[in-house]
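Each record in this resource describes a single protein on a pair of labelled lines. With that in mind, the following record should read easily:

===
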Amino acid sequence: TRSCGCSALALNCWLADRGIAAFILKYRLEPTPEPLDAFRCTMIQRFAVAAAGGPELSIPSSAVADAQAAIRMGRKSATDWNIVPHRVGFLGFSVGPIAGIETVVNADAETMPDLMAAIYPAMGRVAVTQNAPPLFAAIAADDPLWRSREFGLVQGWLEAGRSAELHCYRDGGHGFGMGTPQTTSAWWLDSIDRWMRSLG
């Protein structure tokens, strides 16, 4: 998924340079108020609640269904698209990882991704199954939406006996996309590149 501040095209090019085919998931969201001011008020309110330590942002079930359908389609079309069906991963930014994590939690054999990368995600704990894929999580310590300062997402993976890698960068804020220059978040792409290579 595309984050605020992350160019989907730039990321796709970066992945393609490493032999990775990337597809952008456009998932359905809940209806939002039509007038721009009402939409802006709704979003400010939701992010303010999350930043104040309230309930984390959620995502509609339709978005999870779209993520599941995308994984199924990728595997079904693997031959036509020249991709490896057992190397289908999910990479999401900000709210995007919620769809991926919910997909992992509710997956069957057809919809379980082979890896999960969550970039500045919600860090709430989730109960994952023992067949959950390897997890890569990256967040900046100065992310204003990460008030809990807990790593529940990663802990859930580890408690299930699953592979997890966490990078907590000193700075970069929320929405650092491809990495914010002059901050340590600028190195996350190098880290995920090494992580993916280590998994083959």
Summary: Residues 36-51 form the longest helix (16 residues). The CA atoms of residues 136 and 192 lie 7 Å apart.
